[in-house]
C-alpha cells in the first residue's frame, strides 16, 4: 500500500471538482443546445405559418417576372416572334409584372416581417450549430477526463476504482497504516513483556530450585503454582509462629504466676511447718510423732506443690515446641532470601522477609496475568498482521504491472511521468479554452479566416481603429434613432391618407426610409463586427505577448530583489487591470504598496523583459540605463548589473552613472570586456 502512487487528498479534491465542473459544463451545454433547438424550431414554424397565411412577393419574383416580360418583348423586337403571336404573351408578362409590383407594394410590411423571420431562423440555425459544437466539445472533455482518471487509477494500481470512491479508499488505506503502526507498537510491547516473562521465570525457577521445589520440565504455570503453595506454607508457618509466640508469652506469664504461687505456697508451708514445730513444741510432741491426719495433710500439701510445679513446666514445654517450628520457618525464609535477595539476610527480621516474599508472589501473579493479556494481544495483532500483509501483497501485485508498463522500476521513478501528464493536461485545457473563445467570439468564422483578418491588422493601429469603430457605432446609433423617428412620422402620415394619390408618394418615401434603415443596419453590423474583431485581436495580442513578458519580468524581478519576490501577476478582473508582485511567502503586494527602491527594480525588470521580447522579432536597439541604481544597495545593484550583463549578450547596453563606487561592481560583473568612459565637464572660464 505504501508503494502505491495514489493521488494526494488535495489532488483528489481537485479532480473531483474538475469532474463536477466538467459534468456541469456538459449539462449546461446540453441545456443550451436544447434551448437553441427549441428556439430554432419555434422560429422555423413561425416562418412557415407566416408564409402560408401571407402572400408575400419577393424581389426575386418581381425580377423574374420583369425578365420574362423583357424576354417576350425582345423576341418580338428581334423578329423571332411576330406581333400577333407574341402580343398576348407580352401583355400577360406585363400584367403579371405589374400585379407582382402592386402586390409587393401592398405587402411590404409582410415581406419585411418574413425577411426578418428568415434572418432570425438563419441566426437561430447558426446558434444551434454553435451550441451543438460546444455540447459535443464539453462531452468530449468529460469523456477525456473520465478516461484520464481511469488511466490514472490504472497507473496508481487501483484499476476500475471510481473517482467518487477514491476518498473512502484513501481513508481505509490510512486506517491500515494506523493499524500497522499500532501493530508495531504492540509487537514491541509484546517483546518487552516476553523478555520480562523470561527473566521472571528464570528467577522463579532458580529460587524454587534452591528450596528443592519444581523441576526443569515444569512450565511457568506449574512453577507459579509451586511458588504459591510454598508461599502459602510459609505464610501459614509465620501465622503459626506468631500464634506460638503469643502462647509462649502467655505460658511464661503463667509460669511466673505459678512460681509466684509456689513461692507463696512454700512460704505458707514453711510458716505452717514452723507453726507445726512450734505447735509440736508447744504440744510437747516430738517431730516424729505425727498423727495420720497430720501425715495426710502433709502429703496433700506435697501433692499440691507437685501439681503446681507440673503446671509451671507445661508452658515451658509448649514454648520449646513453638521455638522449634519458628526455627524451621526461619530456615525456609533464609533459603528463599539467599536465592532471591541475599541482602535481606542482613536485616535479621524474618517477619519482614516473609512479607517481602509475599509481595514477590503477588507481583509474580500480576506478571502471569499480564502475560495472559499479552498473549491475547499477540493473537489479535497476528490476525491484523496477516490481513495487512495480504492487503500489501495484493497492492504490490497490482502496482508492479503498471510500473512495468511505464518502463520504470519504482514509484519515485514514475512521479516525473505523472507530473508530465499533469502539465500536458493543463496545456490541453489551455488549448481547448482558446478554441472555445475562438468559437464563441468568432461570429461563425473559421480559424483560418480569423487569423487572416487579424494578420491584416496592424497591432499598433488597433487602438485608433477601435476608437474609430466606437465613433462609427455612435453615429450609426444616432442615424437609427433619427430613422426610427422618421418611420413613426411616416406611419402616422400613411395612416392619415384616405386612398388619395399621395399614398404612392408616401409609400415611396417609406420604401426609401426602409432602404436607408437597411443601409444603416448593415453599417452597424459591419462596425459591430469590426469592433468585436479588434477587441478579439487586442485580447489575443495581450494573451500572446503579456504572458511571456510577465513571466520573464518576474524572473528578472526575483533576481533583482534577491529572492524576496517570486513572480508577477495581473488581476484582469479590475478595470483597468492591476499589476501585483507576489512574495516568496505567498502574499501579494500592489505596485503602490512597494517601496521606492523595489518599484525601481520592478520597472527595470519590465523594461528589460519588454526589450527582450522585441529583440526576438525586430532589429536590436541599444538599452540606455541612466543612473538606475540610486535607491539600490550594493547587493541589489550587483544583481541589477548582472541583469544588464545578460541583456548585453543580445544588444548594446549603455550604463550612465555619476557614482564612482559602482565602478568596482561593474568591472566585477562585466569583466574585462566592459568599456568604461569617464565624462568630465571642463571648468567654465571665470
UniProtKB/TrEMBL annotation:
Keyword Glycoprotein in annotation: no
Coiled-coil ranges from the UniProt annotation: 176-203, 234-261
Listed InterPro entries: P-loop_NTPase
Protein name: Chromosome segregation protein SMC
Sorted UniProt keywords: Coiled coil
Classification lineage: Bacteria, Pseudomonadati, Pseudomonadota, Betaproteobacteria, Burkholderiales
Amino acid at each position: 500500500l505504501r508503494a502505491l502512487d495514489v493521488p494526494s487528498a488535495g489532488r483528489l479534491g481537485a479532480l473531483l471538482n474538475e469532474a463536477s465542473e466538467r459534468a456541469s459544463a456538459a449539462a449546461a451545454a446540453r441545456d443550451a443546445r436544447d434551448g437553441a433547438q427549441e428556439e430554432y424550431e419555434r422560429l422555423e414554424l413561425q416562418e412557415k405559418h407566416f408564409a402560408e397565411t401571407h402572400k408575400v412577393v419577393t424581389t426575386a419574383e418581381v425580377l423574374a417576372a420583369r425578365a420574362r416580360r423583357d424576354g417576350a418583348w425582345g423576341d418580338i423586337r428581334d423578329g423571332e416572334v411576330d406581333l400577333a403571336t407574341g402580343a398576348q404573351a407580352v401583355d400577360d408578362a406585363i400584367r403579371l409584372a405589374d400585379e407582382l409590383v402592386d402586390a409587393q407594394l401592398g405587402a411590404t410590411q409582410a415581406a419585411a416581417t418574413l425577411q426578418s423571420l428568415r434572418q432570425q431562423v438563419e441566426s437561430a440555425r447558426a446558434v444551434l450549430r454553435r451550441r451543438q459544437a460546444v455540447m459535443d466539445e464539453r462531452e468530449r472533455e468529460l469523456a477525456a477526463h473520465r478516461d484520464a482518471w481511469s488511466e490514472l487509477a490504472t497507473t496508481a494500481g487501483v484499476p476500475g476504482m471510481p473517482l467518487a470512491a477514491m476518498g473512502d479508499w484513501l481513508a481505509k488505506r490510512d486506517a491500515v497504516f494506523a493499524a500497522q503502526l499500532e501493530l508495531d507498537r504492540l509487537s514491541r510491547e509484546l517483546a518487552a513483556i516476553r523478555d520480562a516473562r523470561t527473566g521472571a521465570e528464570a528467577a522463579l525457577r532458580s529460587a524454587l530450585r534452591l528450596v528443592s521445589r519444581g523441576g526443569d520440565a515444569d512450565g511457568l504455570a506449574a512453577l507459579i503454582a509451586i511458588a504459591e503453595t510454598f508461599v502459602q506454607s510459609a505464610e501459614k508457618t509465620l501465622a503459626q509462629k506468631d500464634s506460638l509466640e503469643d502462647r509462649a508469652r502467655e505460658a511464661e506469664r503463667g509460669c511466673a504466676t505459678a512460681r509466684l504461687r509456689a513461692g507463696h505456697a512454700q512460704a505458707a508451708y514453711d510458716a505452717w511447718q514452723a507453726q507445726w514445730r512450734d505447735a509440736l513444741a508447744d504440744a510437747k510432741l516430738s517431730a516424729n510423732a505425727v498423727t495420720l491426719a497430720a501425715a495426710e495433710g502433709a502429703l496433700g500439701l506435697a501433692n499440691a506443690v507437685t501439681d503446681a510445679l507440673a503446671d509451671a513446666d507445661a508452658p515451658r514445654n509448649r514454648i520449646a515446641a513453638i521455638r522449634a517450628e519458628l526455627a524451621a520457618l526461619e530456615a525456609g525464609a533464609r533459603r528463599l532470601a539467599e536465592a532471591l535477595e541475599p541482602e535481606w539476610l542482613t536485616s535479621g527480621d524474618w517477619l519482614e522477609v516473609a512479607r517481602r516474599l509475599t509481595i514477590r508472589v503477588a507481583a509474580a501473579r500480576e506478571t502471569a496475568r499480564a502475560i495472559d493479556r499479552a498473549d491475547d494481544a499477540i493473537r489479535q495483532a497476528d490476525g491484523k498482521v496477516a490481513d495487512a500483509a495480504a492487503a500489501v501483497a495484493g497492492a504490490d501485485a497490482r502496482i508492479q504491472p503498471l510500473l512495468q508498463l511505464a518502463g520504470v522500476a519504482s514509484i519515485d521513478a514514475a512521479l516525473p511521468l505523472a507530473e508530465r501528464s499533469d502539465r500536458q493536461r493543463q496545456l490541453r485545457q489551455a488549448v481547448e479554452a482558446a478554441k472555445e473563445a475562438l468559437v464563441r467570439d468568432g461570429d461563425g468564422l473559421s480559424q483560418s479566416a480569423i487569423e487572416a483578418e487579424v494578420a491584416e491588422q496592424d497591432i499598433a493601429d488597433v487602438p485608433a481603429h477601435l476608437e474609430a469603430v466606437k465613433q462609427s457605432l455612435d453615429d450609426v446609433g444616432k442615424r437609427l434613432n433619427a430613422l426610427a423617428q422618421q418611420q413613426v412620422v411616416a406611419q402616422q402620415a400613411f395612416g392619415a391618407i384616405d386612398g388619395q394619390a399621395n399614398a404612392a408618394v408616401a409609400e415611396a418615401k417609406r420604401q426609401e426610409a426602409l432602404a436607408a434603415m437597411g443601409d444603416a443596419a448593415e453599417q452597424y453590423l459591419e462596425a459591430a463586427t469590426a469592433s468585436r474583431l479588434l477587441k478579439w485581436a487586442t485580447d489575443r495580442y495581450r494573451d500572446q505577448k503579456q504572458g511571456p513578458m510577465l513571466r520573464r519580468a518576474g524572473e528578472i524581478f526575483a533576481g533583482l530583489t534577491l529572492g524576496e519576490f517570486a513572480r508577477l501577476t495581473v488581476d484582469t478582473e479590475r478595470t483597468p487591470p492591476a499589476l501585483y508582485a507576489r512574495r516568496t511567502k505567498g502574499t501579494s503586494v500592489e505596485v503602490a504598496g512597494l517601496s521606492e527602491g523595489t518599484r525601481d527594480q520592478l520597472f527595470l525588470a519590465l523594461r528589460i523583459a519588454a526589450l527582450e521580447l522585441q529583440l526576438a522579432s525586430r532589429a536590436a536597439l541599444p538599452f540606455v540605463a541612466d543612473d538606475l541604481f540610486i535607491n539600490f544597495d550594493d547587493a541589489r545593484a550587483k544583481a541589477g548589473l548582472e541583469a544588464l550583463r545578460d541583456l548585453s549578450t543580445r544588444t548594446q547596453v549603455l550604463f550612465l552613472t555619476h557614482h564612482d563606487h559602482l565602478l568596482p561592481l561593474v568591472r566585477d560583473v562585466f569583466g574585462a570586456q566592459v568599456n568604461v568612459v569617464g565624462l568630465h565637464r571642463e571648468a567654465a572660464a571665470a
